[in-house]
Design goal:
Two copies of one chain form a homodimer. Chain A has about 260 residues and is of the alpha+beta class. Chain A has two domains: about 60 residues, Arc Repressor Mutant, subunit A; about 180 residues, Beta-Lactamase, CATH 3.30.450.40. Chain A has ten helices and nine strands. In chain A, the strands form two sheets. Chain A has a six-stranded antiparallel sheet with strand order 6-5-4-9-8-7, with helices on both faces. Chain A has a three-stranded antiparallel sheet with strand order 1-3-2. In chain A, helix 5 packs antiparallel against helix 10. Chain A is globular and about 55 Å long. The two termini of chain A are about 40 Å apart. The relative contact order of chain A is 0.11. Chains A and B meet through helix 1, helix 3, helix 4, helix 5 and strand 5 of A and helix 1, helix 3, helix 4, helix 5 and strand 5 of B. Chains A, B: InterPro entries: GAF-like_dom_sf, HTH_MetabolicPath_Reg, Tscrpt_reg_IclR_C, Tscrpt_reg_IclR_N, WH-like_DNA-bd_sf, WH_DNA-bd_sf.
């Protein structure tokens, strides 16, 4: 431990943590400030990370995550096994719809998008791969919430729910009823809950036909195509069943 | 610096470096051995990485890269800007062919695959996203080599070239002539150079119409479809022109 109580390993992690999808590029002074480190300390840690390839320097002198860290992280099993199993089915859905096809997992009270397929004609979205949203705020998140342990649902529902649009459900009782509905109906149509301009159709991905829910798959369409969204239930269900069976096969093989 | 000359930050990076696509999961003793650290040291570093979310523990007690490190690394601009610009065009190519569509960048003397689209009907490949290959060994790599600085080509050609199949070009003069041909013809058909069962068609992605080459785009088909590969030149060229223009637009906007 150094004088200010942060271990050297902790300093490395603090520096890495200042980079995210909203801040892909940072100057040294921004890194020092965001990491809560002296500039001289930040400089030393950044140099060590750069020598290894975890950070790279742009022509303007700012720093960003390097290809080597990306390579190490691309082996993350929670995203990789899921993506490998899901992508062919996501391709089929994309080809049938030409809309945004998204895959997300729950991490605590947040939703993390791990894959997205989009084409020239797909509607623009707020969400990006590698970004987090409160689990209750999106259709895919509510699907994951509906299948999360009861104690966990209680925790999310006990906090104030953010209103993203005039349509966002913020009353905990209404949301709880919606979670019951999601468990019964399998597919959930989330109508302009996160953005006025989009409607999402989402369903749970399991490990095997009836195993635990490990992810949510969603199709996001323009709000003016809301009726169309309802017609996407069947292809979405076929895709999540296909992915669930594939994940079940892989889990059995790994045992 | 500790007694054995490795800084604490260096230990963190050594531990992270033991994880890759071939070794997504490691026991503590494997981590210690591969990182060249005492088990007690490895244990302390792993615990610190796990507390932050960079590593996660599986039910069998082994360790793997955690979602939080994946999120940080997903902001890597070299992969992210390229993927964002390329994916819609890659989708078009996939839809037109149903073959593997791959995107790769050069990192030193190696090729790193940064994106792949594949469907149920696409041929199985040796390559994976996040894996490296010697730059001379694949069609996409040779395209990048053809557009690399001359000194760099000399360096690669001075080393023995690995023979992956009986068809692999290993004579440096033949390969140099091939690099000249690639620069003239734009599209390169790589016939069973890495695997007996595959043929690749590859072309360079530039930053803007006539800017520097930043990546290679490739379509990989079964070797029995080699004639078909030649017919993919035109759609591939359209895709790389589209991506190059999009990258040029983004580069101008960022200035």
């Amino acid at each position: 431990m150094s004088a200010n109580g942060v271990s050297a390993a902790g300093k490395v992690l603090r520096v890495l943590a200042v980079f995210d999808r909203e801040h892909p590029s940072r100057t040294l002074s921004e890194i020092a400030r965001s990491a809560g480190l002296a500039v001289s300390t930040a400089h030393r840690v950044v140099a060590e990370l750069a020598a290894w390839g975890a950070l790279e320097r742009a022509e303007d002198g700012s720093w960003h995550v390097g290809l080597r860290l990306w390579e190490v992280a691309s082996g993350c099993p929670r995203t990789q096994i899921l993506r490998d199993a899901a992508l062919p089915f996501m391709q089929d859905l994309y080809e049938a719809t030409h809309e945004n096809i998204q895959l997300a997992v729950r991490e605590g009270t947040e939703l993390v998008f791990v894959e997205r397929i989009a084409g020239h004609r797909s509607v623009d979205l707020l969400t990006m791969v590698g970004t987090r949203f409160p689990v209750a705020s999106t259709g895919m998140g509510r699907v994951l919430l509906a299948h999360a342990p009861r104690e966990f649902q209680d925790e999310v529902l006990a906090e104030p729910l953010r209103s993203w649009t005039p349509h966002t459900v913020t009353d905990p009782r209404t949301l709880r009823a919606q979670l019951d509905l999601i468990r019964r109906e399998q597919v959930f149509v989330s109508d302009r809950q996160l953005s006025e301009s989009t409607v999402a159709v989402a369903a749970p991905v399991r490990i095997g036909r009836s195993g635990p829910v490990s992810a949510a798959l969603g199709i996001v369409v323009a709000a003016r195509g809301a009726e169309r969204a309802r017609g996407l239930r069947e292809p979405l269900l076929r895709a999540v069943h296909g992915i669930s069976e594939e994940l079940g096969r892989r889990a059995r093989t790994a045992l």
